[in-house]
Design goal:
single chain, alpha/beta, Flavocytochrome C3, Chain A, domain 1, Methane Monooxygenase Hydroxylase, Chain G, domain 1, 4-stranded mixed sheet, 21 strands, binds succinic acid
Length: 552
């Protein structure tokens, strides 16, 4: 079947929903999401959204903190644009009905939190459930807005591309043209052509490439993988951010202990109670996230301990319970009373600072294809994202993308829909052994965790490349042999993203920001002060996942 929509948005996190609300003023919007609409990283965000919101803060300070955290790779004009847009976008969220915490009940002044790398209090929050508050408010607004249709259980599989449909981009600055996406309807099992004038990739990050992650299960790098397969340029995938403090407990799957806990005085200690962060950085517990995660990794490797501890028990118990109700309750349910004892924590994969390369407007090198949120690499984060800058980036770039679409709306709406070939299943058959998928999935995640983690080595990177090769070949074969299932689609995506992360990490022969490699311990500005850009047309990787007959 073929369906048509003016704007096809892939993902229901903060960037997709924010863009949808604005784009609905221009044309018909369809949002597809692969599971339930609340299955997003936004919904799990605890800390909040960073913006200059008090007299004691300034744009220059926020810009300086972002640049310092980004280790030389941020694009200064992007940082300035995002920071200067911050207060207006936060106001829009307030107008939509997001209840950020205020200092007292009867004041409009926001209660601002602090996190690592920030030199001022600037995090607007809803205690430790900020993401849920934002997600709910946006979803409610979307439900009330005419012109928006939201389809759950619709998994985008691949992009519809002009070069495969005999249509060329309108300007030669673009390498191809996006015509929409192939979308798998999980209920019917059918893959439909969704034709769109503008396609927005905002399907989140790729934490599930790693064995331990704070991310929800949906974070399988779908947007990055689809874009790369379609010929989009992807950048800086070696910069994987590991959050320093994920709860360490056998029954807890991916529970984050917000950096705001350290912002309110929480201290990292080892098994013996020794406070170790000052050894690593004058910023101590509030050093930037790359430094803190590496310090914990070093401590754990040195001591052989399974975790370190985050202690906030010296603060008033009522304050802890009211400021961190979700963290308090969740830890309590695992038998840890954080008002009385330290919390066992370990670092876990948290955020992809790289992604699909965009300009200041969220546009990619493929005409009518935008990337927003964690899927994108806009130039804001550089080599290490400053805490709570991601929700900010999402709303600012959703607005930027809307502005450019609004400016070009006559051209966009006047362009006809184009037909693309239907999805071909070839000689595929039903997969009857899901273990073929789960085993590969598990192997990739373990390899990535053990070989491409917080501190890398060239030796391990080359080994993982070799070990991934036969697994990728097998997945490519499954893709040809079997009907697509959601698990197979996701496996193919994490496999490709893993390969791209490895390739990017091998490429960068220096340590910078989140990319630490033992053979090249120093930052080398002379040779490496630039993005790592990969694209299918460069043929830098000869992936077996990119055969000409992927799904014919
Ligand atoms: C946190 O609450 O620590 C996460 C905030 C972020 O990732 O920016």
């Amino acid at each position: 079947m073929a369906y048509s929509t003016d704007f096809l948005i892939i993902g229901t996190g903060i960037s997709g929903l924010s863009f949808a609300l604005k784009a609905a003023k221009i044309g018909k919007v369809t949002i597809v999401t692969k599971k339930a609409k609340v299955d997003t990283a936004t919904n799990l965000a605890q800390g909040g959204i960073a913006a200059v919101l008090s007299e004691e803060d300034s744009f220059d300070l926020h810009i300086m903190d972002t640049l310092r955290s980004g280790a030389g790779l941020c694009k200064e004009e992007v940082v300035r644009m995002v920071v200067e847009n911050g207060p207006d976008r936060v106001q829009e969220l307030l107008d939509i009905g997001v209840h950020f915490k205020t200092r007292t009940h009867d004041t409009p002044l926001l209660d601002l939190g602090r996190e690592g790398g920030h030199s001022a209090r600037r995090i607007a929050h809803a205690l430790d459930l900020t993401g849920r508050e934002i997600e709910n408010a946006l979803l409610q607004k979307v439900a009330e807005t005419p012109n928006i249709r939201l389809l759950e259980n619709h998994l985008a599989v691949d992009l519809l591309i002009g070069s495969k449909a005999g249509v060329k981009p309108s300007e030669n600055r673009f390498d191809d043209l996006c015509l929409g996406a192939y979308v798998l309807d999980r209920e019917s099992g059918k893959i439909d052509n969704w034709r769109a004038k503008v396609t927005i990739l905002c399907s989140g990050g790729c934490g599930k490439v790693y064995l331990y992650t704070t991310n929800p299960d949906i974070a399988t790098g779908d947007g990055i993988a689809m874009a790369y397969r379609a010929g989009a340029r992807v950048a800086n995938l070696e910069f994987v951010q590991f959050h320093p403090t994920c709860l360490y407990h056998p029954k807890a799957k991916n529970f984050l202990i917000s950096e705001a806990v350290r912002g309110e005085g929480g201290r990292l200690i080892d098994e013996k109670g020794f406070h170790f962060m000052e050894k690593y950085d004058p910023g101590g517990d509030l050093a930037t996230r790359d430094t803190v995660a590496r310090a914990i990794d070093t401590e754990m490797k040195g001591s052989g301990d399974d975790c370190v501890y985050l202690d906030i028990s010296h603060k008033d118990a009522d304050f802890i319970k009211s400021r961190f109700p979700n963290i308090y309750q969740t830890c309590f349910s695992y038998g840890i009373d954080i008002t009385k004892e330290p919390i066992p924590v370990v670092p876990a994969a948290h955020y992809m600072c790289g992604g699909v390369l965009t300009d200041m407007w969220g546009r990619t090198n493929i005409e009518n294809l935008f990337a927003l949120g964690e899927t994108a690499c806009t130039g804001l984060h550089g080599g290490n994202r400053l805490a709570s800058n991601s929700l900010l980036e999402a709303v600012v770039f959703a607005h930027q993308a809307y502005l450019v679409c609004d400016q070009e709306k006559d051209i966009i709406l006047g362009t006809p829909f184009h037909d693309s070939p239907e999805w071909s299943t070839g000689k595929a058959r039903m997969i009857n052994e899901n273990v073929l998928i789960t085993h590969n999935w598990d192997q990739i995640r373990r390899l990535m965790w053990n070989y491409v983690g917080i501190v890398r080595s060239e030796k391990r990177l080359n080994l993982v490349k070799k070990r991934l090769a036969p697994i990728l070949k097998e997945i490519a074969q499954h893709f040809r042999d079997y009907f697509l299932t959601p698990d197979l689609v996701e496996l193919r995506n994490i496999a490709l993203v893993a390969e791209l992360i490895v390739q990017s990490s091998i490429h960068r022969k220096e340590s910078r920001g989140l990319h630490a490699i033992t053979e090249y311990p120093a930052q080398d500005d002379k040779n490496w002060l630039h993005d790592t850009i990969l694209s299918r047309s460069d043929k830098t990787i000869q992936s077996s996942l990119l055969g000409p007959d992927e799904h014919e």
